Structure formats: structure tokens, C-alpha cells
Amino acid sequence: MNRDKYVGMDVDQATIVAHVTDGDGKFLMETFLKTKAEGIRQFLRSLEGRVHVAFEEGQQASWLYDIIRPLVTETIVCDARRNKTIGSKGDRIDARKICQWLRLGELRAVYHGQHGRELKELVHCYSKLVGDTTRTMNRLKSLFRGQGIVCRGQGVYNWQRQEEWKSLLKSEALRTRADLLYKQLEVLKALREDAKKAMLEEARRQTSNKLLLGVPGIGAVRAAMMMGIVGTPHRFRTKRQYWGYCGFGVVTHMSGEYEIKDGRRERRKKPLQTRGLNDNFNRRMKAVYKGAAVTAISAEPFKSYYQRMIDNKMRSEMAILTVARKIAAISLAIWKKGDTFQPGLVNQAQSAGDEKG
């Protein structure tokens, strides 16, 4: 007797639609739940056998994952962008499709775990404040540029010179707008520093912090962001999986891969065609490693590593990308193994030392 049950959930702020089938795909029930912890727990406890649950990533995903995970055999938070919607869309339809894809093993899971949950929240807070600060700075500069006022560089953000800059604006409304933007910028900068301080304090409690700080180009903020975003390096079996997560995975294309000779299948000896880097990646992690690469090439051992590529006529941006890939592979390896950084790792062949990093 098949004792597996599959539950697809479409989650809304107020209600959850749950569609349930057995292991053979036979419909068992459909129910509507309030998005409340106790009601969800009661529903799952009422299901017998091995229960598998899936729902899409969203604002409430972490909260819901923590509620469901201890009560069922399997919990999958799936990537909504990868779930192809066929035909009409609705809460009941979505719940049914998620249930069907869960049973068939067609869902792409989004990582949710217990590693570094506190640091993850602090990194998220800091990143959002950095983004808000950047947007406010852009709005302020756009205000002056819109009036034909040249404001190159960082001088326009100087708090001591704000009155001088505001005097260049011709109308009272524009000066008021600039004044409010300056006040907003001042508050955001203070909040960003508070968030940064809290993030770094939590990062220093992590055992991996000192290991990552030993990698050239990775400072305190970058190490904290890596630990907060990734959680655990053991999510990635090889460096190539990690490269894909960070946006450094090379997309390849192959057609006509096999041929028949003497009645036997043989693989053609033709090179793979590349199609650039993968476009489904974590933007913040890519920014962390590209920034680390720019910092690392100013000193050894990455300075000579970078220069060799330039001497071999590689474009500067491609050389920076190669350095970023190398730093990502090295940091993953020492993070997983608990080793310290050794300069010899930089010149190690790509196919050997950090393949399983």
C-alpha cells in the first residue's frame, strides 16, 4: 500500500489552498486554511503516512518552512520563476500543479535551513539600507542634473556644502525637495552604519569568519555577506555548482553529440560551444566576488596571477572574472574543509585542487 501523500500549497496572506494526492496521483482532498500556525499544524497532523509538502518561495516562506518541516517527511520551497504555468492561473489551479510537480519530482528547491539564520536577517537588513542609500543619492544628483547643474563625483553629497548646492536651484520647491533628500540621506547613512555594526558583530560569532577573512580580497563585510547569504557551504557538492549560484557558471551548448559507427553509439569529438555565463544567480554574491577580485589583484599572490592573463592578451574584464572565479573556488574549499588560505592555491590547476571544493 502506498502511504505517501503529496500536498501542494498556494499561500496567500490570509488563506492557504492545499491540494492533496496519494503516491499514485489520485486526488484525496482539497482544503482552505487560514494562514495561521496552529491551523496549519492541525491539518498536517491529520494526514497519515509519509507526507511531502511543497509551496512557492515568498514573503512568508521562511516562517511557513519552520512550521511545516518538523511535522512532515519532506518540505520543498520551490522557485516560482522556474515553475512554468500552463493555461489558466488561480489559487486552486496553482496548488494542484504544485502538488503534481512535487509528486513527479519536477520542482526546483530554494534553500531554507537553520545555518546562520540570525546573520541572514542582518545581512538582508544591511543590503536593503545600502540600496536605499544609493537610490537617495541617485535622486539627489538627478535633481541637480535635471536643472542643468554639473555635479560630478561625490561633492554634491557633502553635508557641510548642502546650502551651497541648494542655492544653485532656482525655485523654492526644488530647494525644499533637495533639503528633504539631504535629510533622508543623513538618516539612511546613520541607519546603515548601525546595521553594518550589528551584522559584523554577529559575523564574528561564526566559526568560519576568520577562515574567510584570510582569503585575499575578502574583508569583514564581504565575509559576513557570504556567510549570511550562503548559510552553509555544504549546500554545494562542487565548485561548479557554487559558480552557478554566484553567476560564474559557463553555459554550454552541444548539438549532434552522438553518432552511430559500426552499429555502436559513439560520442563525437567536437568541442563544447559556450554561451556566456548563467543568468539565474544570486546578484549579491556575484557583486561580493567581483569586488573581492578587484581588491585582490592589487597585491600578491593575485597580482601576478592577473598580470599573466593580461600578458596573454586576455581582456581586463575577463581577467577580473577569472580571478573572481578562482577566489570563489578557494573560499568554498577552505570554508568546507576548515583550512586556512595558502598562496599556492592560486596557481593550482583549475581541474585539480579545488574541483571538489
Blueprint of the fold:
Elements: E1 4-11, E2 15-22, E3 27-34, H1 37-45, E4 50-56, H2 61-68, E5 74-78, H3 91-104, H4 117-145, H5 162-166, H6 172-203, H7 209-213, H8 220-230, H9 239-246, E6 250-253, E7 258-261, E8 264-267, E9 273-277, H10 283-296, H11 302-311, H12 316-337
Parallel strand pairs: 1-4, 4-5
Antiparallel strand pairs: 1-2, 2-3, 6-9, 7-8
Report what the structure shows.
- With 357 residues, this protein is of the alpha/beta class.
- The protein has 3 domains: 4-104, ATPase, nucleotide binding domain (Nucleotidyltransferase, domain 5, 2-Layer Sandwich); 117-203; 209-345, no CATH class.
- The protein has 12 helices and 9 strands.
- A hairpin with a 2-residue loop joins strand 7 (258-261) and strand 8.
- Helix 4 runs antiparallel to helix 6 (172-203), helix 8 runs antiparallel to helix 10 (283-296) and helix 11 packs antiparallel against helix 12 (316-337).
- It is globular and about 75 Å long.
Write a short abstract of this structure.
The protein folds into three domains: 4-104, ATPase, nucleotide binding domain (Nucleotidyltransferase, domain 5); 117-203; 209-345, no CATH class.
Strand order in the largest sheet: 3-2-1-4-5
Fraction in beta strands: 5-15%
Taking the alpha carbons of the first and last residues, their distance comes to 42 Å
What is the global morphology?
globular
User: How large is the radius of gyration?
Assistant: 26 Å
Q: Profile the largest sheet.
A: 5 strands, mixed
What oligomeric assembly is this protein in? single chain
